[in-house]
């Protein structure tokens, strides 16, 4: 079985650590490769390579860096099918669905790197007295990108554009559960050696990387628990962290909407990627006037999410990533049922191998239940019926998380009210999307640090100001 390697200064090499982890196909429970568990020595070597490569990378013309990144994106695009197949093998996502997300991520990488060309890396402000202030934005140096397994390729590509275009070098540490696609992504890399380095492993690599003295910024995407540790490490060194963490996103369904069309959209938001999206719809508040028709349509829609090995044609939902993730789903369903909820669809696991769990609709749910409080990261759609739109917004807003929220309504006043939900993004009559201008910072426990659009460049650079007097002060 293949043992995966790290990419350091443009050369593939074995880990210096003594632990190997199995990479497991969650549809079959079979190991498909071995990968390093990670160690501090690997991290030190990768960071040294990134530090050494950074001045020459930053010295290139901005347009040259953007052209390098864009050329890499083109190569990745040519291998999108292969990358989607690897993602399916390592974490279960159906190949066709994975392919769509990878296409989007490649376009996003190109767009975000291209934004560098209009970003104000150097601006001069003239003063009335003839003097001026030059504002310069410098790259930070060597940076780190640590990613989860739920969108292995997308998460890496999503973080790299602004960091690299701004003149930083990067050490990437993908999830230990999904290293296959990351390794392939960097086999396709055509940037100068050391500009992007890859270190494999779990917290044994992630911890030392996040705490490294020479890593100036950590872009971390993952759980709240690990994010707190990363933030504590960077805080100790007074270095930067952008933390994109977990969620428990609400959706509010107003009276007057088309219940069938809305239920189809909510099913997609709750079940796609087997519910393993940070912005999956995990709390559903429905106005009582449409509740019966909505739930009936949601149950019907859940039945269309055919489960199976994501390599097979027509499969809508692959397995959960591992047994631990399936145990969380089981625990949330059992707790809800014990406290009075009703399973209206799904809830019964298929026999046989693979970490499968069906698209499941729960009604009679309330906020005392785990399923309404803790992130599930699984294919559950818990529905709460509310007496008014205002009550839906009020209950949607009661959460320690604040990643995103979705509202379905035809009422312009209600659309305006939706903006009050404390979340980084509010979608109205759509879920996901919003274009490259999307700018946000997660609220509450969902993270820290503004990102998207110009904020990604603000995070990737350090500003300084040079004041030039009109004449020597007498
Ligand atoms: P995780 O926190 O277990 O792991 C994420 C990454 O951090 C992995 O690469 C892991 O090896 C590494 N890691 C773990 N402990 C670490 C430590 N102490 N120091 C440094 N690195 C460490 O999360 P996961 O299970 O891989 O991913 C699921 C979580 O990610 C969910 O909570 C989900 O909501 C969240 N997520 C958030 C977003 C977002 O944009 N907000 C996107 C995708 C996933």
List keywords for this structure.
single chain, 474 residues, Aldehyde Dehydrogenase, Chain A, domain 1, seven-stranded mixed β-sheet, six-stranded mixed β-sheet, 14 helices, binds nicotinamide-adenine-dinucleotide
Notes on the protein architecture:
With 474 residues, the chain is of the alpha/beta class. The protein has two domains: 6-245 and 446-465, Aldehyde Dehydrogenase, Chain A, domain 1, CATH 3.40.605; 249-428, Aldehyde Dehydrogenase, Chain A, domain 2, CATH 3.40.309.10. It is 38% helix and 22% strand. It has 14 helices and 22 strands. The strands form six sheets. The chain has a seven-stranded mixed β-sheet, with helices on both faces. A hairpin with a 4-residue loop joins strand 3 (20-25) and strand 4. The mean pLDDT is 97. It binds nicotinamide-adenine-dinucleotide. Nicotinamide-adenine-dinucleotide is lined by residues 146-150, 173, 175-176, 202-203, 206-207, 210, 221-223, 226, 229-230, 244-247, 278, 375, 377, 403, 447.
Quick rundown:
The chain is of the alpha/beta class. The protein contains 14 helices and 22 strands. The structure holds nicotinamide-adenine-dinucleotide.
C-alpha Rg (nearest Å): 23 Å
How many strands in all?
Answer: 22
CATH superfamily label of the largest domain: Aldehyde Dehydrogenase, Chain A, domain 1
Largest pleated sheet: 7 strands, mixed
Distance between the termini: 76 Å
Averaged pLDDT, please? 97
Number of helices: 14
Order the strands across the largest sheet as they lie in space: 14-15-16-13-12-18-19
Shape: globular
Give the count of structural domains.
2
Instruction: Write the CATH fold name of the largest domain.
Output: Aldehyde Dehydrogenase, Chain A, domain 1
Based on secondary structure, the structural category is alpha/beta
